[in-house]
User: Fold this.
Amino acid sequence: MSKKAIQIDAKDNVATTTSIVEAGEKLEVLSPDGAVILETKPVEKIIFGHKIALKPLDTDEPIIKYGEIIGVASKPIKVGEWVHTHNVNSARLHTAGEEVRGITS
Assistant:
């Protein structure tokens, strides 16, 4: 049986894991209506409740969860990659000395 992640809103480009997912484990991503929209094998461990990328994300591309921008990619992120503070900057505040471009409050 594969692990699961849930896309909360159809506009989201990330999904939330429903358990710990080890590197290389099969992961099914479910849409808000329960359909499988992606099958992937993460290259790194992803902690329960953390985000995984549903599509390739370029540097400065908005991270969308709950149908809202929650941050911007601080570097390119691959499909199935863990999305967290190591590769995301705040969309509203400057973080880690990085300037956030293209997002206004």
Q: What stands out?
A: The domain at 3-89 is CATH 2.30.130.110 (Archaeosine Trna-guanine Transglycosylase; Chain: A, domain 4). The two ends are 43 Å apart (CA to CA).
